[in-house]
């Protein structure tokens, strides 16, 4: 009985033939008299290649477009955006007039949207002078550039116990990271 079921459902092997004898069954039996021999339901996965993928592959197009976009952005367009962020976080020229360094830090950190940042330094030098450090600064082993001259800065440190910043106004050499000759990182 198992051989008859297998033969009826397309299984290979011996089954009961028309006279009840055991003979080789047809590997492609007719499933129903209403299904023609050209019916798409009769597919042999071994010999029929109608389901094999061929032709253009549009699913590969999107990753290629994304790769091209990433390469275009990496070619120098994003360094301008990073430089704008650097300037927002670290450049205050001319220096904002506030009575003392601590009130300066509290004012500037709120104004620049940096409140709660543990440590931040504001540089009080023209942006072009800061940019020139990328070209003329002393290279360091960590890949940063150090200014040759002393630069006036205000260092702001957050004190969580009093929920306020304390500021220190100093003159020192600064170290920055550059990308395409623009500063994008400040080493605290």
Automatic annotation (TrEMBL):
Domain Ribonuclease A-domain: 84-186
Stored InterPro entries: RNaseA, RNaseA-like_dom_sf, RNaseA_domain
Keyword Secreted recorded: yes
Keywords, comma-separated and alphabetical: Disulfide bond, Secreted
GO CC terms in record: extracellular region
Family label: Belongs to the pancreatic ribonuclease family.
Protein name according to UniProt: dTDP-glucose 4,6-dehydratase
Organism of derivation: Platysternon megacephalum
